[in-house]
Design brief:
By secondary structure, the chain is an alpha+beta fold. 31% of the residues lie in helices and 25% in strands. The protein has a single domain, classed as Deoxyribonuclease I, Chain A (4-Layer Sandwich), CATH 3.60.10.10. It has 10 helices and 14 strands. It has a 6-stranded mixed β-sheet with strand order 3-4-2-1-14-11. It binds 2-acetamido-2-deoxy-beta-D-glucopyranose (NAG) (4 copies). One of its GO terms (molecular function) is nuclease activity.
């Protein structure tokens, strides 16, 4: 996908010079271009978009071994770490980007973009995307490599969750919670084997003292779990705003695991900076995949920046959350 890299080279300096409205208009155009480019690239790549149609699904899925050797024969030019090996790694990143546009938003989103380029996740879960942040991302080089759950014309909310994928997406969908306009965003992705993977992200009700809105958050968690429970392979991640001390254990059925506690028992795993809490989670129910690794990312403050926080100068991190990076394999 070499030529996609040069397609968008607008720098953040250019973005900062633009008025918000202009950025959004530009984003709409660029995103439209990206859809077309993405389709063309995918059609030539190992991951044919047409694999979501019935006839080719039949053809490519008849035999898992053939399927895999098909990948080997295809001249897949990705620099994204896919390899045609028997077991392939799938990386999923989750990041609450912090909707505060008044805190160095361009530099912060640039830092998050650098993390995306460094880790090259196959799938990204974002929370607290504002229309302006959406526009910044649309103008970033890495954006071209992904298919996004939210097209430009659907950017209407003040902030929202979205899901990006380098792997072909069979369907995107949304389901809002019964007690809120907040929703769970899902995608069924084609991982090139017989096994489909469903990935889902959400941002559960934020805690407000004194009662911390636990009951509302617990109801949302239970609703999400019940929506996902019959799927064989699910990665559900995002800002769960979860704190065991007020909310109790996350309502996981027995075939689910919390990837962090599974792989790093006894490690704090803070994903929120002030106060330090493990608000963000990756919850997995995997029949045909296994969890390989999980780590927190974006923990370095951005050099040379500060902002006023509680009447003190404070360091600026890419977000007020850390990101999470999960690796699974089939
Ligand atoms: C798909 O496969 C099934 C069973 O293998 C076969 O009966 C059917 O005709 C195939 N459909 C297409 C469109 O190839
Ligand atoms: C965009 O919004 C419309 C109207 O709510 C919805 O029907 C459609 O599915 C959305 N498209 C995507 C790709 O999210
Ligand atoms: C899902 O929700 C987002 C944010 O509210 C919206 O922009 C998008 O169009 C929705 N997608 C679908 C498939 O409905
Ligand atoms: C959240 O909790 C606070 C009190 O702790 C309450 O005033 C508020 O109404 C709750 N919000 C919702 C949406 O339940």
């Amino acid at each position: 996908m070499g030529n996609s890299k040069s397609r968008s080279s607008q720098t953040s300096t250019a973005i900062s010079a633009l008025k918000v409205g202009a950025v959004i208009a530009g984003a709409a155009l660029l995103a439209f271009g990206a859809v077309i480019a993405g389709t063309a690239l995918l059609a030539f790549g190992a991951w044919s978009l047409s694999s979501s149609s019935d006839s080719s699904e039949n053809k490519s899925r008849k035999d898992g071994v053939l399927d895999r050797s098909g990948f080997e024969l295809q001249d897949h030019k990705g620099d994204d770490g896919y390899h045609a090996t028997a077991s392939r790694l799938i990386k999923v990143m989750s990041y609450n980007v912090w909707f505060r546009e008044d805190v160095e938003v361009i530099r912060r989103m640039e830092a998050i973009g650098q993390l995306i380029q460094k880790h090259s996740p196959d799938i990204i879960f974002f929370q607290e995307i504002t229309p302006y942040i959406y526009a910044i991302f649309c103008n970033s080089q890495w954006w071209q490599l992904y298919e996004c759950s939210v097209p430009p014309e659907n950017v209407t909310k003040k902030y929202f969750c979205m899901l990006l994928s380098k792997l072909p997406v069979t369907t995107f969908s949304n389901k809002s919670y019964e007690n809120s306009i907040k929703e769970i965003c899902l995608a069924k992705v084609d991982v090139g084997t017989n096994n489909h993977l469903v990935v889902a992200t959400t941002h559960l009700k934020s805690p407000n003292p004194p009662k911390m809105n636990s009951s509302k958050r617990i109801a949302q968690a239970e609703e999400a779990m019940s929506l996902l429970k019959n799927l064989p392979n699910v990665v559900f991640g995002g800002d769960m705003n979860w704190d065991e001390s007020s909310d109790g254990p996350f309502p996981l059925d027995e075939d689910w695991v919390d990837a962090w506690t599974e792989l790093r028992p006894g490690k704090d795993g803070w994903t929120y900076l002030r106060p330090q809490k493990r608000l963000d989670r990756f919850l997995c129910k995997l029949r045909d995949f296994k969890i390989i690794d999980i780590e927190t990312i974006g923990k370095k403050a951005i050099a040379g920046l500060s902002y006023h926080h509680n009447s003190m100068a404070d360091r600026v991190y890419p977000s007020d959350h850390f990101g999470l990076l999960l690796t699974i394999s089939n």
